[in-house]
Every structure is written in C-alpha cells, then in structure tokens.
Amino acid sequence: MPRKAPTPCRHPGCRALVASPGFCAEHARDDIGWQNDRLRGTRHERGYGTAWTKLRAIILRRDGGLCQPCLRARRVTRATQVDHIVSKAEGGTDDESNLQSICDKCHKAKTARESARARSGT
C-alpha cells in the first residue's frame, strides 16, 4: 500500500513537511492550538455551563432559529449560535435582552470587530 504524501507543518509560516497531519518537531511543543482554551478555563468555569445551554435554547426558540443581524439586513439565515449583543468583556450580561441568535458568518465578523476594538483600546 502506498504511503500518504507528507503535509506541511500546521504552524503558521512553517514549510517543513511532516509524515502525518500536525506539527514538525520544532513546533510540536509550542503553546498553540487549544492551549489558550486550557488557560482560559473550561466552558463551565467561564460561565457557559448547563444554565447557558438552557438559556441558549430559549433564545434560539425566541428568535425562531434565525440570525438576527441577517434579518436586519433583509436576509434569512439559519442561526447556529447565540451571541451577547454587548460582549461580556464590555460589560454585557446574560440577560435575554442582551442575547441574539446569530449565524456563524455574522458571529465571526462581530467577534473580529470586537477584538479589533479591544486591541485598539477604544
């Protein structure tokens, strides 16, 4: 049976080839990947435990399973996530009035805007 072709190391910018998908020897021990989540704590430690799962179901049902930012832009898109309108980092709460159903694309874009705002300090 033929061997699988080597793949590039998954570390950004590294061009080393590895026999199996993953990292080369130089980058195998770097603090990358899910390490950040381990540093942040579990979802329960961050406040996203059983109570959040129940609240998430309530919000998705309330919004009819539709992405609210897409609806405002006159598009109909299935929501897959629940988002804090005002992020918790900016003082938002888990109150139902601060939560909205959102699709993956809108959630990534909103998170990117919030991250950029946090990095710029405004």
UniProtKB/TrEMBL annotation:
Protein name as annotated: Putative HNH nuclease YajD
Native source organism of the sequence: Paraburkholderia lacunae
GO cellular component: cytosol
Key words, A-Z: Endonuclease, Hydrolase, Nuclease
GO MF, any single term: hydrolase activity
Domain HNH nuclease: 54-108
Family: Belongs to the HNH nuclease family.
Gene3D superfamilies according to UniProt: 1.10.30.50
